C-alpha cells in the first residue's frame, strides 16, 4: 500500500473510510487517525496502526450531524457543557448508551466523545456518514504529529491516505470525565478545566 497525501475533498479518502480503512487528518489541535466506529475490522486496523493495546477504547468523533444522546446518557450539566463548548478542543467522557458495539466501549464505564472545532473536518465526517474512532496520529508513546508530511513518514504503507490541511495547536484536547455526575479532569489541554466545571454547575 502506498500512502497518498490528499485534500478534504478527496472522494477516495471518504470511500476508504466507508470501506473500513484507517486514514489520517488534521484537527484544530493535532493530527488524528480515524476509522468508522461500527466496524470491528476497521477497529483492528486502527489498533495495529496505532500500536496500541486493544483493550483501551478510542474516542468517538462526530460531524455536524452528530447527536450525543444517540451514544451517551446525558445529565443536565453535561448538556450545558456541550451547548457551551462543543464543537471545540474538548473530549467528554460520558456514560455510554446500552447496545453500542463492544469494540467501541470495551466494557468501559465511559465513552469518550469529541466534535472537532474544525468545520472542514466536521463536514468531511458528515460525508463519510458515520462517526469515527479517533486517536492522535502517532505511534503509542510517541509525540503527536502536526503536519501531513510527518504523518506520511510515520505511517507510510500502513494507511492509504493522509489529508493535508493545517492542524491547529500542539496542545491536544482537554479531557473531562462527566460519567459519574462530578466533573473530573483527565487531561488539561487547550480548554481550561475550570471553565468546563462552571458550565457544568450552571454558574
Give the proportion of residues in helices.
Answer: 25-40%
Number of strands: 11
Q: Average pLDDT value?
A: 95
**Would you tell me the structural class of the helices and strands?**
alpha/beta
Overall 3D geometry?
Answer: globular
Oligomer: single chain
| CATH topology-level fold name | DHBP synthase
* Highest CATH level, the class: Alpha Beta
CATH superfamily: DHBP synthase
User: What's the CATH architecture name?
Assistant: Alpha-Beta Complex
Number of helices: 7
Taken as a percent bin, the fraction of beta residues is 15-25%
Q: First CA to last CA: what distance? A: 52 Å
Number of domains: 1
Low-confidence stretches: none
Please summarize the sheet with the most strands: 9 strands, mixed
Element-level helix/strand string? EHEEHEEHEHEHEHEEEH
Q: Please tell me how large the radius of gyration is.
A: 16 Å
Structure description:
- The protein is α/β, with parallel strands linked by helices and 203 residues long.
- It has a single domain, classed as DHBP synthase (Alpha-Beta Complex).
- It contains 7 helices and 11 strands.
- The protein has helices at 11-18, 40-50, 76-85, 102-105, 119-128, 148-155, 193-201, and strands at 4-6, 23-25, 32-36, 59-62, 72-73, 90-96, 111-115, 132-134, 161-163, 174-177, 184-187.
- Strands 2, 3, 4, 5, 6, 7, 8, 10 and 11 form a 9-stranded mixed beta sheet that branches.
- β2 (23-25) and β3 (32-36) form a beta hairpin.
- The longest helix has 11 residues, at 40-50.
- It is globular, with a radius of gyration of 16 Å.
- The model has no long low-confidence stretch (mean pLDDT 95).
